[in-house]
Amino acid sequence: MGLSIVLSLLIIGICSEVLGNGIGNRYFLEKQRFLLEILHHVHEPLMNQQWRSLGEHLVTDKEQYVVYNDHMTEFYKAFNLGKLLNHNVYYNPLNADHFQQTLGLYHFFYNTRDWYTLWQNICWARVHLNPGIFVQALTQVILKREDYQALIMPKVYELWPETYHDDITLAKARNFNFANWVRYENTSDIEEIHPQKMEPSSLEGDLRNSLEWFQAMADVNILRMHQQKGENKLQHLLEDIGWQSYWYNLNMGIALTAEKSDQLQEWCYYQLSQILARYKMERYAQKLSYKQLKPARNIQKHNHRFKESSLKTTQIIMDYLDEFEAKVSDAISFRSLQLTNGSNIDLAENENWLTGLRELFPYDWTQLTIEEPMQPELLLDIRTSLRSEDFYYYAERFLHSYRWYRTVFQPPNQKAFIPSDLRIDDVQISPLITYDQPVDVDLSNILHARHFYLAGQFVWPFTLQQRQFRLQHQDFNYSLQVSSNKTQSTIFRIFLTTPGQGSLQREPFYQLDSFLTVIYPGVNRITRNSKEFGGLIGDHISYTELHQFVKLAEREEYDFPLNISTSNCGFPRRLLLPRGGSGNPLKIRLLIVATVYDFKARQGNELNCDFTKGISRWDDLPLAYPFERILEDDNQAVETSGDHVYWKDVNILHENYQP
Ligand SMILES: *[C@@H]1O[C@H](CO)[C@@H](O)[C@H](O)[C@H]1NC(C)=O
Ligand SMILES: *[C@@H]1O[C@H](CO)[C@@H](O)[C@H](O)[C@H]1NC(C)=O
Ligand SMILES: *[C@@H]1O[C@H](CO)[C@@H](O)[C@H](O)[C@H]1NC(C)=O
Ligand SMILES: *[C@@H]1O[C@H](CO)[C@@H](O)[C@H](O)[C@H]1NC(C)=O
Ligand SMILES: *[C@@H]1O[C@H](CO)[C@@H](O)[C@H](O)[C@H]1NC(C)=O
């Protein structure tokens, strides 16, 4: 097909982006395949000749943009002066200059009037720019442009496998020679596997093991290598690719949200508190201290490209935190705050405490920029921050100040939220069982790029998957028995916590589930399955399979489902529970809290990292209720005792995987 025909097809495509029935049409498929191919081996030079030619120049005709703003002008100036980040320099969005450059490119993408301009700019950026800037800006645009939201970006750990895997794995994959391997089978520990052996075998929508899947994968050799054993007791959580990428996606969504709202801030602190609580539950499960975290000067083996924080970074952050805490503490002692515009406000007056909340508590971490060039460090790269144990120490300090401020200034949650004539009588829960689940992770982007071009054509002859074991749990049910003397709409929140009899303030409370239901007079029994819990996602198919499905659909042998991937800002469902005990079960507690429904439920789209429609919530209570503030250590506290509250001891068992 000639270039001009391709172009006209793509241009028509804008008008009919997606068919109404959830199946990608050919315009969609063409864009989708382009996206997968242009991102393939994104850290290496682009091999596609056509796109290289198309990408010779950035579109600078202002007519082609809805607006042509200062970010773009500055960016283009910097490009002409040769001031943009070099190809091989380590990119870090927390670096102020890198962030500005990303923003410039983002606008060159976002403001384009049509796909053709965007297409050319994408090719240009792929050829000329640092791949970090390119991927970051492109990810943002796919998230934010409604007409392209249906397009699927490969997951971040498939784009940059080198960020997530150890050096030995990387070296093996990089040096892997497919031709030799075929000739002298068994010369390495890389083995070929049958498609049926890919794990996990059951995915939502039965994507694997369907007839179409075998068709799509028919021309692809599936190779497998095994993961190195690590030594960190928390590795199964900290190095989990879903755990790490959750934080990355969330921050990517926030960074370029133009309308920063109080709601978004509240949601971010809630997410941070969830992450911290979940981390602490895992420490508890591993019998590590968890009540008050310390900065980790850990003696981990460094077989990753990314290092732990340098002393200098630690110093910068400690200074920042000291200053931040002093500011909050002053605001609390003096009940007043000097705003950035110079005026003083009395925090005890009217709604002023909300202004203070807004001014004092940062949440867009990409704003915490650091001026100097940096070496890759776990903490300072949002792709890997959650792998750094220091992260949780800092998070705890941030959250402590945040909760303290709320405790002092937030008006008391009205007693009206406590339901009357309602009692939680009993809670039953099916066995909680965790296990190590085998999974294959796509390393194809590390392989040498030459494997993927045959006579100038892009091909995908084989895929390299790393066999890992990850934390998983069996589905479980719980049921509540609730009696009431009237009909009432009620919200239930269910938390996971330690069995500690000690201070509530020191224990983690991880919110497992929350839901709205109607309670009728008499005895009510409500059953919830872990599959129903909100905000969670399952598995998605790999980069390789995605590409093969697109190819199959282009041959009209497959109806490409637009819901084939998973929401980027969903939390991995399989990480809900901390690893259970083997032998002796892990003892934990559930806390169930009922509150009155105020008919204020709202539905946002944060699961897809889109914050423009607000944040989903059940009611006007703070999102982390009742743990958004520091609760008194009082056994009679209305938030944690009474008929509308129920505590339940439970066990989690860890079972060995049996192949
Ligand atoms: C490769 O090695 C495995 C085990 O070491 C053996 O079972 C298999 O038959 C060998 N395959 C070939 C083609 O030599
Ligand atoms: C996509 O949606 C269809 C129809 O609702 C559903 O049957 C299918 O399971 C979904 N696929 C995935 C991968 O979620
Ligand atoms: C400073 O900002 C506050 C809150 O936005 C506003 O109420 C106040 O009038 C501003 N003061 C000045 C001097 O601009
Ligand atoms: C319902 O009313 C009866 C009679 O007043 C009382 O004994 C019972 O405790 C009430 N039940 C609840 C759940 O409030
Ligand atoms: C959960 O409940 C459903 C329906 O009540 C039942 O079919 C299922 O077997 C239960 N699952 C477990 C793990 O108990």
What is the overall silhouette?
Answer: globular
Associated small molecules: 2-acetamido-2-deoxy-beta-D-glucopyranose
Instruction: Please describe the biggest sheet, giving its number of strands, its sense, and whether it closes into a barrel.
Output: 8 strands, mixed
Instruction: Give Rg in angstroms.
Output: 26 Å
What is the end-to-end distance?
A: 48 Å
In the sheet with the most strands, the strands line up as 1-2-9-6-17-16-11-12
Q: How many DSSP E strands?
A: 17
Quaternary organisation = single chain
State the helical fraction: 25-40%
Give the strand content.
15-25%
Low-confidence stretches: 1-19
Mean pLDDT: 89
Please describe what this structure looks like.
It is built from 19 helices and 17 strands. The chain has helices at residues 3-15, 26-38, 49-54, 70-80, 96-110, 115-128, 131-144, 156-159, 161-164, 167-174, 178-183, 211-216, 235-238, 241-255, 262-285, 311-334, 352-360, 389-409, 543-554, and strands at 191-193, 221-226, 336-338, 344-346, 422-429, 432-442, 453-454, 457-458, 462-473, 477-484, 488-497, 509-519, 522-529, 536-537, 571-572, 586-596, 645-655. Strands 1-2-9-6-17-16-11-12 form an 8-stranded mixed beta sheet. A 3-stranded antiparallel beta sheet has the order 5-10-13, with no helix packed on it. Strands 3-4 form a two-stranded antiparallel ribbon. β3 (336-338) and β4 (344-346) form a beta hairpin. The longest helix has 24 residues, at 262-285. Mean pLDDT is 89; it is low at 1-19. One 2-acetamido-2-deoxy-beta-D-glucopyranose (NAG) binds next to loops.
